[in-house]
């Protein structure tokens, strides 16, 4: 059995990020990453068809959503690789009666559009509504502050597009902490958004990397020390008096500190018997499958709809969760691409049929690529934040040397995973 100071299970963004942070914060520690797949990156990937390279999985970063993303990008020497989204990326479309409707970007825009004109009164009256500090569902939050029309046509499709889940069940504090934070600080979301437009110096906008977000994973691999073993399947974890034994593959390891940077179902299967609180946490956090489909066309099918993409309210009964207008978002990228997110696998023909209903005159794509991720979307039900806090307390109290990180804890975004990885590395370095 080989000895290391720290064993990290999982070579996705969480595992690769904490490996890098540990190399900076605790350079003397001997670290190994064990990844069961041949490829690193987890849900972050890259595809190539007909000489066109495209990202698979998450598409963009937002510096304003992370305390540590910007410095990480700079430390890795990726600043020159950043590609910022076009100015039209602020425009988002909501599907209503199977048609795309752009969400206005100003009060004047709301006044001009009959569809959204009726939103003005609830948006303005929201200023006078008292704040509620306790947790509530996304739907109840939206209903309380803005009314049913905005809840059904904005917050519901936004929840579907990001989490693939039900706004009437998911926690607003866990899924969209921004809203509860601004409600507490400003007393009003719409007031904050109006004033925020006048603020300067704050990092804004979305960006990707020249060679897709997979470039971040590749740079994390080469920019820090610590062995990485791929295609290494873990069979068993044993807690000892002095540390942790990790058994599986053709090598077994012992370490004082063990980091599980794995999806929730894998984490629970490995340590659920050691700590029942992990198994209980999994039972209270449903996991959904997510499908990413990339279609490439001979022309930009979204030229009449410049923007980031479209989201779909529940009442539309659409097979789509969301559509990203890749070519509008990053015009300089290769190919006229569109990315579609669904909960179930659809054929190329089904994708084209639905896109044709939305846009009209959609041709047969040059190519179609599909990727499924099983149990990849954790559902943060009401009270999720308290359950995370309790789980962290139990692990810290009962299992010295065990660290849990991943998208099922503090957020599903890449930025949230990076922030959790940094905080965990900071604790491990002390």
From TrEMBL:
CC annotations in GO: cytoplasm
Compartment list: Cytoplasm
Phylogenetic lineage: Bacteria, Candidatus Aerophobota
Protein name: Coproporphyrinogen III oxidase
Protein family: Belongs to the protoporphyrinogen/coproporphyrinogen oxidase family. Coproporphyrinogen III oxidase subfamily.
EC number: 1.3.3.15
Gene Ontology biological process terms, A to Z: heme biosynthetic process
Domain of life per record: Bacteria
Top EC class of this enzyme: oxidoreductase
Keyword terms of this UniProt record: Cytoplasm, FAD, Flavoprotein, Heme biosynthesis, Oxidoreductase
Pathway connected to this protein: Porphyrin-containing compound metabolism; protoheme biosynthesis
Organism name: Aerophobetes bacterium
InterPro entries for this protein: Amino_oxidase (IPR002937), FAD/NAD-bd_sf (IPR036188), Protoporphyrinogen_oxidase (IPR004572), Zeta_carotene_desat/Oxidored (IPR050464)
An MF annotation (GO) of this entry: oxygen-dependent protoporphyrinogen oxidase activity
Function: Involved in coproporphyrin-dependent heme b biosynthesis. Catalyzes the oxidation of coproporphyrinogen III to coproporphyrin III.
Pfam families noted in UniProt: Amino_oxidase (PF01593)
Domain Amine oxidase: 27-425
Cited SUPFAM superfamilies: FAD-linked reductases, C-terminal domain, FAD/NAD(P)-binding domain
